[in-house]
């Protein structure tokens, strides 16, 4: 079985692929101090609870936090007796190389989303990922990542507002009943929600102008559903896009000649 690991700035997601389906998905807080032994104890416990049969024989890792990769490599080597494939490293080949400025390092999560988005939705797409940062990944007609946009994530914006303005409380993001708030919490929720609706609309509009062609918009990430309700922002919401991309990259690299 294949273990796909997607390590973001806030959370790390583990999914098990049995060759046909993802049979389990778990999430934990990202912590660069967590050891390989701790990962294994937690994972083995989760596998027992969900009665996952079979052994992990392959591991692929995408991480936007470089400091966690070492212990995830140790986890793979020590407990699963395999060398993990790490997205963004030279040994992990891509079906189509990114077309960006020379010397630019593209985040592994963006590479994975590009591969998955192209496989499921074709080329000329924009993948909007609502994570710690809100990213827009532009995928060309041949499946190449050709650039994008990075904006502060929704929860990051809320935390910054709370931390920098002593009188403002921390609130959960939700769709407000109306734009004009009549109390502090409603005002903050309205500003964040409608602000991000406007952000997505404006960025996508500008990308379409620059590309001068139809561009489908695919949303993923934890808050994708919130911003898709009742609006025509996205052509599709794809919650497991990143895991699908990790599986595709693992298969692609296995099929390459040594």
UniProtKB/TrEMBL annotation:
The UniProt catalytic activity note for this protein reads: (R)-pantothenate + ATP = (R)-4'-phosphopantothenate + ADP + H(+)
Task: Give the binding site residues for substrate.
Answer: 107-110, 184
The positions annotated for binding ATP are 6-13, 132
Q: What is its EC number?
A: 2.7.1.33
CDD domains to which the protein is assigned, alphabetical: ASKHA_NBD_PanK-III
Give one GO molecular function term. Answer: kinase activity
Taxonomically, the superkingdom here is: Bacteria
The active site annotation covers: 109 (proton acceptor)
Q: Where in the cell is it found?
A: Cytoplasm
Pfam families named in the record: Pan_kinase
Record-stated family: Belongs to the type III pantothenate kinase family.
This one is known as Type III pantothenate kinase
Q: What is the lineage of its organism?
A: Bacteria, Pseudomonadati, Pseudomonadota, Alphaproteobacteria, Rhodobacterales
Encoded by which gene? Answer: coaX
């Amino acid at each position: 079985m294949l273990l796909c690991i997607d390590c973001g700035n806030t959370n790390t997601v583990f999914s098990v692929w049995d060759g046909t389906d993802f049979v389990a998905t778990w999430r934990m807080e990202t912590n660069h101090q967590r050891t390989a032994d701790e990962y294994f104890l937690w994972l083995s416990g989760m596998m027992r609870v969900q009665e996952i049969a079979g052994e992990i024989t392959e591991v692929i890792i995408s991480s936007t936090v470089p400091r966690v990769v070492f212990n995830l490599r140790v986890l793979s080597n020590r407990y699963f007796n395999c060398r993990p494939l790490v997205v963004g490293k030279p040994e992990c080949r891509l079906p189509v190389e990114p077309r960006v400025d020379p010397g630019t390092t593209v985040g592994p999560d963006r590479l994975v989303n590009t591969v998955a988005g192209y496989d499921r939705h074709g080329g000329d797409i924009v993948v909007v990922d609502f994570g710690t940062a809100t990213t827009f990944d532009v995928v060309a007609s041949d499946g190449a990542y050709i650039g994008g946009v990075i904006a502060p994530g929704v929860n990051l914006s809320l935390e910054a507002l709370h931390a920098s303005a002593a009188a403002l409380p921390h609130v959960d993001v939700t769709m407000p009943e109306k734009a004009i708030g009549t109390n502090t919490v409603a005002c903050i929720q309205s500003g964040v929600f409608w602000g991000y609706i406007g952000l997505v609309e404006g960025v996508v509009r500008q990308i379409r102008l620059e590309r001068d062609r139809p561009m489908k918009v695919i949303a993923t990430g934890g808050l994708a559903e919130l911003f898709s309700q009742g609006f025509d922002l996205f052509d599709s919401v794809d919650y497991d896009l990143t895991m699908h991309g990790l599986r595709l990259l693992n298969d692609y690299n296995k099929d390459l000649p040594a």
